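PROTEIN DATA CARD
Card holder: Rhodanese-like domain-containing protein
Chain length: 131
Origin: Pontibacterium sinense
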Amino acid sequence: MSNITKGIYQLVEEANQIVDEITVCEALDLYKQEGVQFVDIRDIRELDREGRIPGAYHCPRGMLEFWIDPESPYAKGIFQKDLTFVLFCAGGLRSALAGRAIVEMGLSKVKHIHGGFGAWREADGAIQMKD
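Structure generated from the sequence above:
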């Protein structure tokens, strides 16, 4: 018998109360705007298989908090800039949870794409395949 008291869908629903979930149309409007950085949190194998959004910064979900915290030995300078971060994963679940984590860390300008990379692809957003 499972001891789980909260499932992933409840966690995502709660995250969406904290993180600005945007539509793919809103994401397309934000794409390449000054001060906006798309962040791909998918696994590298997903990027290799499905392609990437050109200009998106790849930050694997498992390293996100470590790369954002300026006190971490793994901190990445991009997350120390005053940018609006638009997170996405394959379908919008991991990015909601990731967004919640970084909002709780103190970043306030965080959004995530409802439907993730799949919605981006269906909307004919720019995609770059691995060479």
